[in-house]
Write a structure and sequence with these properties.
The chain has 393 residues and is mostly helical. Helices cover 53% and strands 8% of the residues. It has twelve helices and 14 strands. The protein has helices at 5-27, 53-69, 74-90, 115-132, 135-151, 173-184, 191-208, 238-255, 258-275, 304-321, 324-338, 373-389; strands at 39-40, 46-48, 51-52, 101-102, 108-110, 169-171, 210-211, 216-217, 220-222, 235-236, 287-288, 302-303, 352-353, 359-361. The strands form six sheets. It has a three-stranded antiparallel β-sheet with strand order 3-4-5. The chain has a three-stranded antiparallel β-sheet with strand order 12-13-14. It has a two-stranded antiparallel ribbon with strand order 1-2. α3 crosses α4 (115-132), α4 (115-132) runs antiparallel to α5 (135-151) and α10 packs antiparallel against α11 (324-338). The longest helix is centred in the first third of the chain and has 23 residues, at 5-27.
């Protein structure tokens, strides 16, 4: 299938600049205490004022990133720095670990059990350093990244609910994030640290978590890399895999490694085939690789971020390799997602659809959805389409 790159580029540009960014700028800024409101209903009204660190950090990153790469808009930089100031005042414990959530005013609510708060903090402050050159942002990004590496084998530390020693699993999510995070921090880290982190991330994502006999990437494996025939061990998250695969494609392009790119494309195609709902369309949220009932009751929901990451992976796979199957998948995903997730009346995208593709929750932001996956996905898609038009890839 031929992709109309020009027309689609215009669509994604308009969606980002006219409908998504204005929604967050108009509704999410906390002018009194700093930071952002993320629990927003369909129209943008605030329905809860708790502040979740990773969503605060993601919004800092979004506006700093777009300032750096789209437009030197001083308003965007002000928004990013306002959120960063709130995080610097309130976001960490005495050891530099980032809390999970705060009150509106900035008082800690949930302990720093979640290492992804730290991951997105490092991303946010790395982008702000690029935007401003301020050493304080560089120092926070660097220290946070080093803390992540020190915690990577025991991410939750004392806050883990697992009984030690009985079933020691390692999770796919952290090496996946590190494969992208390290590129965000190239200006902050030493070159040797960047390259060694990339090497480790590629090996872990593409070998340790890849189960060759079933051609699938798992969410959890035993500490020694073997398969765990349990709820957690059988868990397959197509959205995570597809997000990771476009990270791998980016790393392959950066290194001129066409073998890595092809493997990422092959895994993407396999994941799309397995994850696509043959009855109602869209990609499942969770699956059990042996076909057993998943433990997650929301397994069949269709989520915003899953489809955006899938579109990015499909489009990049086509751009990097010319594989027409990836172009076909991009068009199929585009048609499914843009017909269901965007809200034409109030802007932004719905986050949660039921299996049939109907809006399940009309919220635009909450505890897990903020100003990140939609703007990042739209930006990535538009950027790749422009590169295709200019024959730069």
């Amino acid at each position: 299938m031929i992709i109309n790159s020009e027309k689609l580029s215009q669509y994604y540009h308009k969606e980002l600049h006219d409908k998504v960014l204005p929604f967050w700028i108009q509704n999410s800024i906390d002018e009194e205490y700093g930071g952002y409101f993320t629990s927003l209903d369909r129209e943008g009204n605030v329905f809860d004022t708790d502040k979740f660190i990773w969503l605060q950090c993601r919004q800092v990153w979004t506006f700093a990133k777009f300032y750096n790469e789209l437009d030197k808009n001083s308003d965007w930089l002000d928004i990013a720095q306002s959120g960063a100031d709130f995080l610097i005042r309130n976001g960490r414990d005495n050891d530099g670990n980032w809390y999970f959530s705060l009150t509106r005013e900035g008082k800690p609510l949930i302990q720093p059990y979640n290492i992804f708060s730290d991951c997105f903090a490092a991303m946010a402050f790395g982008q702000l350093y690029r935007a401003t050159g301020k050493e304080k942002y560089k120092e926070i990004a660097k220290l946070t990244f080093e803390n992540i590496l020190s915690r990577q084998h025991n991410p939750k530390r004392i806050y883990s609910k697992a009984y030690p020693g009985t079933r020691n699993l390692q999770s796919f999510a952290l090496p996946m994030i590190l494969s992208n995070l390290v590129l965000e921090l190239e200006e902050v880290l030493e070159e040797e640290q960047v390259e060694s982190t990339i090497d480790h991330a590629i090996k872990t994502v593409m070998e340790v978590f890849y189960l060759e006999e079933l051609d699938v990437i798992l969410e959890n494996v035993n500490k020694d890399g073997t398969f765990s025939d349990t709820y957690d061990g059988r868990l397959h998250n197509p959205g995570h895999v597809l997000e990771a695969m476009w990270f791998m494609m980016d790393l392959g392009f950066r290194r001129g490694d066409n073998v890595l790119i092809k493997k990422a494309v092959d895994i993407s195609l396999s994941t799309l085939e397995k994850g696509w709902d043959k009855v109602y369309g869209g990609i499942y949220y969770f699956m059990d690789i042996k076909g057993h009932p998943p433990q997650q009751l929301e397994w069949d929901q269709k989520l915003w971020w899953v489809h955006l990451e899938a579109m990015v992976a499909a489009l990049k796979g086509f751009a990097f390799t010319g594989n027409i199957k990836m172009a076909d998948w991009f068009v199929r995903l585009h048609e499914y997602a843009t017909a269901r997730f965007p809200d034409p009346e109030f802007g932004e995208w719905y986050g949660y659809l039921n299996r049939q593709g109907e809006v399940l929750l009309p919220l635009k932001g909450g505890k897990w959805k903020g100003c990140f996956h939609v703007p990042r996905g739209l930006f990535q898609i538009e950027t790749v389409l422009k590169s295709i038009i200019k024959n730069e890839i």
